[in-house]
Specification:
The structure is a homodimer. The first copy, chain A, is an alpha/beta fold. Chain A folds into three domains: 67 residues, Arc Repressor Mutant, subunit A (Orthogonal Bundle); 135 residues, Aspartate Aminotransferase, domain 1 (Alpha-Beta Complex); 240 residues, Type I PLP-dependent aspartate aminotransferase-like (Major domain) (Aspartate Aminotransferase, domain 2). The first copy, chain A, is built from 16 helices and 16 strands. In chain A, the strands form four sheets. Chain A has an eight-stranded mixed beta sheet with strand order 3-7-6-8-9-10-11-5, sandwiched between helices. In chain A, strands 12-13-16-15 form a four-stranded antiparallel beta sheet, covered by helices on one side. The model of chain A has no long low-confidence stretch (mean pLDDT 92).
Chain lengths: 473, 473
């Protein structure tokens, strides 16, 4: 890390100490001089680190005494297990609410506590601008011409190389470049289903998936997503036995919104069940790259020997959302998927594919991801601490090991949809839990996220959110 | 026109004289000196014009005598009316053949006599590269961020301004930017139909439409597209009376492949019928901008007072195919269309939308279109003349007033699909007529086009195609 960023490292160190309860609320932080000696950094660096921590509200300065962990700071417990979902195919019914929420979440007038994915300020916009300019100028005719239906071949090569790190050995010819991961999902759903069919999902699940299913005339069978351990094989087995499921749609890595990570042993069993029942799986892995631990979690695709997994990912959460570049590994459903791609929009835009291919080829991605993961983890930790400062007793919040969202269980009886409207009236964007299921299971939940650098507006926003929750509790 | 391009004007003048039979095959062209005097251009300019015409094979130089219209030159008659299509809903059945054809048409190894749309060499690649670089560098964060679901607002403003020229008064908020016109079509089809529904199309129609209908599980009722006058209201009325038609999909301007232009009086009647029956119309206008006459033909959307027309267009045929920027005016179906856009791929890529917005805002489009139309018309005329030189008796070819393709009726008994394979074996890409209908109506047709500048390879290719036709006749 460059010298001028050293203070961030110091800040993370202190946050980790608070986080692990090595430093308790009300306790004094090490003196500037002591920490400077211990960490072998300048006093100026420690000072800057403490000032930044003070801005986030985690520590406070007491005149002529030093810095202290804020007295009010406390960790919220994790969410309770909710009652199991009703095991019944249900046609979508949330579209109107989702549209309202989407409009609010996307609004730039609102404080973005409902938006996931990294904010543009954390992404390599300038470098991409340079690469885009170089690609367009270097080959202007190629940059305005069509790519192959499956996408720019050099980009597909780079994706294939990158996927090796996720344990996926795919040839470039097995990859279809899509207009974002959403299109990968959409193509996968169209390739596997017809209106009236039933798809298995985990509950809660990303609301855009529910919208997609509803738009395609599909019914959803929901199995529980356990807040820490994600999908349990027994739940899957039972649902497959009972219903004519045409496809499963799961996010084993940091499921949006609960951040759950389906554990390794469960994955082996899940894959065995799917193979036995010959049911295809659509695997959403858009948060797999944003893990906080040292190692990337695995994928079900890596375990797929029979081409049953349709793997979906994108660069929208990590490099450039507006480039709309995602990819699909459709396994044995490749011909059908390619036909759907060609009849939807022929092929994705050329210049963005070429700029991304150059970005990957030049080896920027790994380095950027390392930084991004640290930042995202720090933001999430900070948000958790602030929730602890301001939310009433009875609130619970997840402690995900990756991804981009916190799943907050408000005190019993607090209505998440009303909470959403009251937050919006105060200029704050949040997402009510109701939109993450076709059933009324998450009425007192909201999803909170922090996609940009922490700042005083966000701190004030969380304070307001805590006040609203206390008023409604 | 700049001085150094003056020879092109001279060439067009001479071609027009040949085309209008003012100069007949075997006749001598005006002498260099005479034409130089008449047109007030230098002798060098006339010389260059004649040399270029000689390259195209339209005229020939005879030693010590001058330039002559080639003796063998003859105009082919226009296609006969084919028997009417069977008036019956038919589920798609051409996908396999279409896939094969698409693979061949897209192959860069083949002489591109099957590809429509302008080749990159005729498009403003360099200027767009410059604008793209400026947009990305000027606002790197915006360029990698998401646009609104309906697209970049400045681009939609520019499109709204441009549409005024087509008689369409639309507000930017009524426009959805799509990933190419194909996606506009796809969204329109999804917004109006469910699998098993029936859609009315003209016959012949663009094969990708048939592929889309098949992929969406729809059936097609075909009404005749008359080679010159396109769709006749009586055919439409009759079909709407007999079948439960959920949507019509028509290309009134230079229908691909027959180049037909539905006439103005028919349009008024068509619109009245649709309003009376309350049947929505998907209007494909991607070739409307490529008219050879002085005035752009109108649109049905301009006559649409009740929001029944879903208008589809793009910049793929005129500016930058690989940018994948099209647009949809979904009329009263806007909410449903926006929902489908959001569940398909959320929104289209940002940088290409911004570069195009800048291109339009700076006023380049009209100037570029003027040049492009002249070039496309000249290429088409040249192709027609060469067909006349080399194709056997019994061949017929359209004389479209716009668009990008010639629809060639081969002598009776020549099988277009076999012709396609034999041309491919000789390294030439053409499109067999069979893929333009769900019925066996165009077995002895092929579509030919010339999307780049005429050259000797193309001239030799047409000679080969003529030989193959003669062998098969």
């Amino acid at each position: 890390m460059e010298e001028r960023h050293r203070y961030k490292e110091v800040g993370r160190h202190i946050t980790a100490l608070i986080d692990s309860a090595a430093l308790l609320p009300g306790e004094r932080l090490p003196s500037l001089r002591a920490l400077s000696r211990q960490l072998r950094v300048s006093i100026a660096t420690v000072t800057q680190a403490y000032l930044e921590l003070e801005k986030t509200g985690i520590v406070e300065a007491r005149p002529r005494s030093g810095y202290y962990v804020r007295q009010a700071l406390r960790r919220l417990p994790r969410p309770e297990s909710v009652p199991r979902p009703q095991l019944e195919p249900i046609a979508g019914n949330r579209s109107r609410l989702i549209q309202t929420v989407l409009g609010a979440v996307g609004s730039s007038d609102l404080l973005p506590l409902g938006v996931t994915g990294a904010a543009p300020e954390l992404l390599p916009g300038k470098l991409l601008a340079k690469l885009m300019a170089a690609e367009c100028r270097g080959a202007p005719e190629a940059a305005i011409g069509y790519e192959q239906i499956a996408g720019h071949i050099e980009l597909r090569r780079q994706i294939a190389l990158y996927l090796l790190g996720s344990g996926i050995a795919a040839r470039p010819e097995e990859i279809i470049v899509t207009t974002g991961a959403m299109e990968a999902l959409y193509i996968a759903i169209r390739a596997l289903t017809r209106p009236g069919d039933t798809v298995l999902i985990q509950s809660p699940t990303y609301y855009c998936f529910l919208q997609l299913l509803e738009s395609c005339g599909l019914r959803a069978v929901e199995i529980p997503s356990h807040p820490r351990t994600g999908v349990h094989p027994d739940d899957l087995r039972q649902a497959l036995k009972r219903f004519d499921i045409r496809a499963c749609l799961l996010a084993p890595n940091f499921n949006n919104p609960d951040g759950s990570l389906t554990c390794e042993e469960a994955r082996a069993e899940i894959m065995a069940i799917l193979e036995e029942e010959e049911v295809p799986l659509i695997e959403d892995d858009v948060y797999g790259d944003v893990h906080f631990g040292p190692r990337r979690p695995g994928t079900l695709k890596a375990r797929d020997r029979r081409g049953l997994v349709l793997y979906c990912n994108s660069f929208s959460k990590t490099i450039a959302p507006g480039f709309r570049v995602g990819y699909l590994l459709p396994g044995r459903f490749f011909p059908k998927a390619l036909e759907i791609k060609s009849t939807t929009n022929v092929t994705s835009a050329t210049p963005t594919q070429r700029a991304l291919a150059a970005y990957l080829r030049q080896g920027h991605f790994e380095r950027h991801l390392r930084r991004l993961r640290q930042t995202m983890e720090a933001q999430m930790r900070t948000l958790q601490l602030h929730l602890g400062c301001h939310f009433p007793a009875g609130t619970r919040v997840t402690q995900p090991e990756g991804g981009g969202a916190l799943w907050v269980e408000l005190p019993p009886g607090v209505d998440g949809v009303e909470y959403f409207y009251r937050a919006r009236a105060e200029g704050i964007g949040v997402v009510p839990g109701s939109v993450f299921s076709t059933q009324d299971r998450f009425g007192n939940y909201v999803r909170l996220s922090c996609n940009g650098l922490w700042n005083e507006d966000l701190a004030r926003g969380v304070e307001t959110l805590g006040r609203i929750a206390a008023e409604m509790a």
